[in-house]
């Protein structure tokens, strides 16, 4: 298992080597702190290392828990513009994520701290927010960018 | 038991050539820092490292800048290692004579009578861990782990079913399964042939790391270093590209519908995702559901139906990297199922170089419909870090 700083180092090397093949991110992007990805059972499942430019999320490097390079995913497509990119705050700001989950939550329920996880498969990254209703029933709300939905499980 | 092989002088020259190319490429990629530019690869000062069974495995070769030691490179001699350049180490000097002296001293301290007169050789007692083996005649008197000088116990391994424990000696060559040995030897020979053909009449100085020389021939070398293709307008690589678009899935469970949409769009069969979801039995926007595993074959049915049978679709239950390569070379996208998700593949990348002991990189260009209503273009997905469940391909039906 690796640390967040080690994840950033590996992500930097991936951008330099071309395994993370995004010249826009490499030349103009700013690498943000790595965020740990948790499996549904809470164990470390990997690292999400975002690349930001002018407040937009350009893409991200995804690593396994052992630091193995998994993929680089670009959100700007093939364009040199960030116009179609999501806001980086939608993906890294826990307050923004909590607010999005709140829109789906029941009145009076309490929301936990968002945790970056995934829906079914690690390629389907989504923040999970635990909701506890007034009656004490617990459920999960997924948030992925501007989309939010309730877990069916 | 492995057959004993002696490298010919040609094979030795070719291995040195491959090591030169790979070290210069690491320098060109800045994996090795600037201080390694024009470093001397001191092949003639290399230290042979043997397998426990007595066969020569690799040479540990010092990398020097004038008189300063920069590190070392492990250059394969035995083809079973699979790669010419096994590992590089930077920041620490390799001084075989000094290690031998320290080893003899440690052996004397342990009371080994023949510590000074024994022949000493370096052995990969538990590859890649190295020890010094003290021999009188052909008989071992002691084996000491390098640096710790702890005696390595004699082998007590019976049938090779269990993996070796942490401090146990074992033969890398003798314990290699036959099929894996064959794969590794083929890979090794193939790599050497590739370099040898190109440099037959234009040999560089093999003992100097030279990234500029490598880069100056990069256009010609490129096919030797990597292969890559993504979808074009046609199979002609001179045609414009890229003729493919990502479609975000419109609900959190419509990855299959989005993937089918991307593939049909490529072939100019344009449908809304809602329509395709309906055809696949995935419900509505308000009440969506995913495709159960038992109905994977519906993807084939829908592709053919929605193209009015102009497309012949196929499902493959054992996807391989070579399938992705052959389909993309034929300019055909694939739908790729991983456990719990569906995406499409529109390109591949394959590097022929190993980077610091890791296998050469194989990557896929993935058009992924997740996150919902956004999607990402993944360049590259590490093929060797991913499990692939199914692929779906489509060909234009020919009368």
Number of strands of chain B: 15
Instruction: Encode the helix/strand succession of chain B as letters.
Output: HEEEEEHEEEHHHEHHHEHEEEEE
Give the helix proportion of chain B (percent range): 25-40%
Which word captures the global form of chain A?
globular
Q: Which stretches of chain B of 5+ consecutive residues score pLDDT under 50?
A: 1-5
| Count, helices of chain B | 9
Find the biggest chain interface: A-B, 34 and 32 residues
Shape of chain B: elongated
Number of beta-strand segments of chain A: 10
Q: What is the CA-atom radius of gyration of chain B, in angstroms?
A: 27 Å
- What's the tally of helices of chain A? 4
DSSP strand content of chain B: 25-35%
Distance between the termini of chain A: 28 Å
Mean pLDDT of chain A: 93
Enumerate the spans of chain A where pLDDT stays under 50 for 5 or more consecutive residues: none
Strand content of chain A: 35-45%
Query: What characterizes the major β-sheet of chain B?
Result: 8 strands, mixed
Helix content of chain A: 10-25%
Largest β-sheet summary of chain A? 5 strands, antiparallel
Overall mean confidence score, pLDDT of chain B: 86
> Compute the gyration radius of chain A: what is it?
16 Å
Commentary on this structure:
The complex is a heterodimer of chains A (153) and B (399). By secondary structure, chain A is of the alpha+beta class. Chain A is built from 4 helices and 10 strands. Chain A has helices at 4-17, 23-28, 89-92, 94-102; strands spanning 30-31, 35-38, 44-53, 56-63, 69-74, 110-111, 115-118, 125-132, 138-144, 147-150. The longest helix of chain A has 14 residues, at 4-17. The two termini of chain A are 28 Å apart. The mean pLDDT of chain A is 93. Chain B is of the alpha+beta class. In chain B, strands 1, 2, 3, 4, 5, 6, 7 and 8 form an 8-stranded mixed β-sheet that branches. In chain B, a hairpin with a 2-residue loop joins strand 6 and strand 7. In chain B, helix 1 (9-28) packs across helix 3 and helix 6 (255-266) packs across helix 7. Chain B is elongated, with a radius of gyration of 27 Å. Chain A binds chain B through residues 13, 16-22, 59, 64, 68-75, 77-78, 86, 119-121, 123-126, 142, 144-147, 149, and chain B through 29-31, 242, 246, 252, 255, 338-341, 343, 349, 355, 361, 363, 366, 368, 370-374, 376-382, 385-386.
